[in-house]
Amino acid sequence: MTPNEREVDTLNDLIKTTIDSVDGYRSAAEDAEHSQYRSIFFDRANERSTVAEQLQSHVRTLGGEPTTDGSVLAGAHRVFMDLKSAITGNDDDAIIAEVERGEDHIKHKFEEAMVDQDISPETRAVIDRCYQSVKQGHDQMSNLKHASQAL
After folding, report:
1. Which of 49, 56, 120, 132 ranks highest by number of CB atoms within 10 Å?
2. What is the rounded CA–CA span in Å between residue 24 and residue 81?
3. How far, in whole angstroms, is CA 42 from its chain's centroid?
4. Half-sphere exposure at residue 86, Cβ-oriented, CA atoms within 13 angstroms
5. Structural domains of the chain, count
6. The CATH number of the domain where 119 resides is what?
7. Residue 108 predicted with pLDDT over 60
8. Domain range for residue 83?
9. Which tens digit of pLDDT belongs to each residue from 43-93?
10. What letters, b where the CB count within 10 A reaches 16 and e where it falls short, cover 107-136?
C-alpha cells in the first residue's frame, strides 16, 4: 500500500457518501410538496456536489483516481424509498425525517475520517473544510425536522 493509498481510499469513501447525499437531496426535492422545501433540498444538493468536487480534487492531488459514483447500498436505499413513497405518498414531514437520517449518516462518516490517525494534516484539513459544510447541512435539516414536528 502506497503512503497515499489509505488517504485516497478514505476520501473515495467520503465521496461515495457525498454523492449519495446529492442524489438523496435531489430525490427529496423532486418529491417535496412545498416549493420552500424543494428549494432548500436543491440548494443542499448543489452544495454537496461542490463538496464532492473538492474531495475529488484532493484525491487527484494525492495521485489517485477519484470515484464518481455513489454506493450500491444507497441505490438499494433509493429503491426502497421509491417503494415506500408509492405506498404511503409523499409527505413533507416524512421526507424531511428521511433526509435528516441521511444527514446523521454523512456527518458520522466525516467525523470518523477526521479522527483517523493515518491521515496527513493536509488531507485532514480538506476533510475538515468539507465537514463544516456537512455539519451546516446536518444542523439545517435537524432544525427543519424539529420545526415541522412542532407544527
Report:
1. 56
2. 10
3. 13
4. 6
5. 1
6. 1.20.1260.10
7. yes
8. 5-150
9. 999 999 999 999 999 999 999 999 988 765 555 455 445 545 543 555 888
10. bebbeebeeeeebeeebbebbeebbebbee
